[in-house]
Amino acid sequence: MVDVPRVPEQWRPASGNTPEERTEGEYPEVRTSRFSVLGPVRAWHGTVQLNTGSPMQRALLAALLLRDGRTATASELIDALWGDEPPSQALAAVRTYASRLRKVLPAGVLLSESGGYAVRVAEGALDLTVAEDLWAAAEKARGVGDLCRARSLVNKALGLWDGEPLANVPGPYADTQRTRLEEWQLQLVESRLDMDLEQGCHAEAVSELTALTAAHPLRERLRELLMLALYRSGRQAEALAVYADTRRLLADELGVDPRPGLKELQQRILQADPGLTEPSAAAPEPATTVVRPAQLPATVPDFTGRKSFVAELSDILSTAEGRVMAVSALAGIGGVGKTTLAVHVAHVARTHFPDGQLYVDLQGAGSRAAEPETVLGAFLRALGTADSAIPDSLEERAALYRSVLDGRRVLVLLDNARDAAQVRPLLPGMEGCAALVTSRVRMVDLAGAHLVDLDVMSPEEALQLFTKIVGEERVASERDAALDVVAACGFLPLAIRIAASRLAARRTWTVSTLAAKLADERRRLDELQAGDLAVKATFELGYGQLEPAQARAFRLLGLADGPDLSLAAAAAVLDLSLEETEDLLEALVDTSLIESAAPGRYRYHDLVRLYARACAERDEQPPSERDAAMSRLLDFYLASAARVYAIERPGDRTVEHLEVTPDVGLEFDDGAKAFDWLHAEAACILACVQQSLAPNSLRRAVDLILAAKDLAESGASSHRYEAATRAARDVAATVGDALAEGRARVSLAQVLNKVGRFDAAAAELELAAGLALESGDPWTNGNSLNEQGIVNNCINQPAVGEEQLLRAIGVFRADGNRHSEASALCNLSRALLLMGRTSKSIDLARQGMAIYSDLGVTFRLANAKYALGLGLSQAGRHSEALDQLTDALGIFAENRQRLWQGTTHYRIAQVHFSDRRAAQAAQHAEQALSTGCVGGDWMRANVLTILGRALHSLGQVDRAQACWREALAIHEAAGAPEAAQVRELLEPVAAA
């Protein structure tokens, strides 16, 4: 059962002793007065805060406010202010305080009634009553299953607290009410955390619960929630350790055992009870879901025919409730209308799936089919799962997906699937849910699926579709010609739609004109090879009717490998203005040859892209124009990414070492827009890199990797960035381009450093250093030395790192690269710190910060503040260290540097622990674990070590040991020297 917070009864209104009602018209000032008791006792008139006087005056005001409008007699007020030992002049003092308050408060607020006093407060003018109303609304929302709203309302209620309630208010009544308010606040926090866990926010909750259990060690409900949050975060050993710590603490402090609920949870964790992945409380059946995705694409308004299929599939979906899972798989050639039919049926059946509909294009017909784990991540987010709660592996994501869908009725439309293997992890698998799958292949190996083979339309259906698009008037007089047209289209829906759209857009054409244009036999379907030839013939219908400029655009834009193209990128490919390009693209959209994915973005269907490339190979003259188009796209991305780089890193001469391009790239108003563009184009940029590794474009491709390095640093695109960098390195090595190979190896090492693969990074950097000498490239020379210094700092060889970083500083200074010089100074600061040269380390960090400040850098200033914070911490100047690290944390967060955020949380945890603030240390360490850190598993083990130290100081010995054992396993697997330190922490335990 969930512990439900309850407002103490004496805070609620009671009948009787209510002062005579006065209208707001009589005292309009009442409406503009506000009061607070969930913090200091304060009063406002409009926006002006009033002086409520001495502590005793505030005590009187608080006593009246907490009576909710009821009159308090003089004797009640004396008891409230002084208790059993009032002064001899207590009554006179009460009257004096009341008189002074009346002079301060607006007219009509403080009333005298029957020898007592009352405070008249307008509705919603006292923070406590607002909090009570918010809680009541939250209970109601939770009762009908709307956890999102309930959680938001509780958070609003908690946000009304401003420190200690009734702060600095004396008197026994204030003491009693303060205790009750603090208890209610804690109950609200517990309720909100319980809802956090029900919504899958396990990782975020661990950090807060760790801090709360440290502050309230005997509160078993918090311990129970912490155990559950840890278990759902995959940290079973720590969850069990929390129970052991709790049992020992209760025995030592109170001489009792944990309550039955806590014991039961321990047993369920030991047994790996599957029910623990479900919501923690038995809530009523929700009338509405937490998050109800509605992802179905719009159905076409001119949907035609397929009546038997619609009826068949609708019947299956409408009976999904009560069945394990209904799966229908539609197969057919490209353009046969699988997606159109599936979307239409899904819309018809959506009322049977009140908890939502999910949709994804699996891109199975192309060379880069969607990965099931990526799709599951998107589905989980759509269902309300926090990013931090989504596991990494396919198996874990699939299991969580099924758990989230348990008890819900959701329809999943899996469009354009490659094969059954791609589909299986995405099937909901739960009673009441259903899946619709479309694919070019017949999924005979998809167990339990209802298979539907979709053929071309009947002549009657084909003519109906053609007529709906073209118009009854134009078709009625040329029915035979219309039949010729749909026959030439092979009765394939997509072909009919393309041909009809062209005719509809040309009012001067007749249907016979279109029929004559389609008479060529190359547009006829080959029944024996319907899968490919029918698709090609279909697209040929639209392509053959394009104007020359439109046809050129169709051919060249299809050469790009990215998932879509922005208008600006398309203009670069075509070497045209934005206006001209947009006209061509919109014309192609009108013919259904491309799609408008979003305003200003365009994409090809997989098969259409393949056809466009075949057309380019066949029709583009001279053939060199294909290479020139892709070269222009590469230039556009390189020039634009270089602008982003320069905005983020003023004074960094890297951009001056990049290949010169004729394209000047996009201009950005500010850093935020530049950063947004880079991340929006990430997939396209990295696809362009991998597509541009021919010898004549290799260096520009590698330079694009350099310019787009923020994609690796943010952690969001690091895997794709690494793959592109490896591909560039391998090609450069094969063709013997020392400059390109050296830069690619440094870029790869930077990625490897961030995930803690230091040995691999060191190997790349050693080769890069030799290549720098061969090519004479100052960028590779300086950056390889700088990265080598970072590696040696991480593997605890600071003396070697110092020598490398000093050389790097020399190279950067000779190159006039002050930005990179500042970076190397900050890294050198870290090396000296590891060798105990604290004072010099601080000085170097300040030098780096000064350079960044001179250059007007904000983003990289965080790295200098981070380095300075480490030095100040080691010098024992903890308050100054926290200031610097907190500033760095804010800058990293603002610039979406997630891994650096986590790393900074780790360093803040170290400072708090050094300053004997174990609870704060544990909280920041938990945030580091949930966010992730630079350094991968190695850094995770370090975070677990400091978390264990903090927990041990808080008396949570068993959980501390669990953290240390996990840290030791990571370090031992990597052969890291830190393993010895962790063993020393565990040895006293083993000896005991």
Descriptive key words:
992 residues; mainly alpha; 3-stranded antiparallel beta sheet; 61% helix; 5-stranded parallel beta sheet; single chain
Overview of the structural elements:
By secondary structure, the chain is mainly α. Helices cover 61% and strands 6% of the residues. The chain contains 45 helices and 14 strands. It has a five-stranded parallel sheet with strand order 8-9-10-7-11, with helices on both faces.
Oligomer state of the chains in this structure: single chain
Task: Find the count of extended strands (DSSP E, 2+ residues).
Answer: 14
Structural class: mainly alpha
Averaged pLDDT: 85
Q: Total helix count?
A: 45
Major beta-sheet overview: 5 strands, parallel
Helix content: 55-70%
Strand-residue fraction?
A: 5-15%
pLDDT < 50 stretches:
7-25, 280-289, 521-535
Please report the distance between the alpha carbons of the first and last residues.
Answer: 38 Å
Strand order in the largest sheet: 8-9-10-7-11
The gross shape turns out to be globular
CA-atom Rg in angstroms: 35 Å
In short:
This protein is mainly alpha-helical.
What topology does this entry show?
Blueprint: E1 33-36, E2 42-45, E3 48-50, H1 55-65, E4 72-73, H2 74-82, H3 90-104, E5 110-113, E6 116-119, H4 127-143, H5 147-159, H6 172-198, H7 202-215, H8 220-232, H9 236-253, H10 260-270, H11 307-318, E7 326-331, H12 338-349, E8 357-361, H13 372-382, H14 394-405, E9 411-417, H15 420-423, E10 434-439, E11 450-453, H16 459-470, H17 472-476, H18 479-488, H19 493-504, H20 511-517, H21 530-543, H22 548-557, E12 565-566, H23 567-574, H24 578-590, E13 595-598, E14 601-603, H25 606-619, H26 624-648, H27 654-657, H28 671-680, H29 682-691, H30 698-707, H31 710-713, H32 718-735, H33 738-754, H34 758-775, H35 778-794, H36 798-815, H37 818-834, H38 838-855, H39 861-874, H40 878-894, H41 898-914, H42 918-931, H43 936-953, H44 957-974, H45 978-991
Parallel strand pairs: 7-10, 7-11, 8-9, 9-10
Antiparallel strand pairs: 1-2, 2-3, 4-6, 5-6, 12-14, 13-14
Helix pairs in contact: 1-3, 4-5, 5-6, 6-8, 7-8, 7-42, 8-9, 8-10, 9-10, 9-44, 11-12, 13-14, 16-18, 16-19, 18-20, 19-21, 22-24, 22-25, 23-24, 23-26, 26-28, 26-30, 29-30, 29-32, 30-32, 30-33, 32-33, 33-34, 33-35, 34-35, 35-36, 35-37, 36-37, 37-38, 37-39, 38-39, 39-40, 39-41, 40-41, 41-42, ...
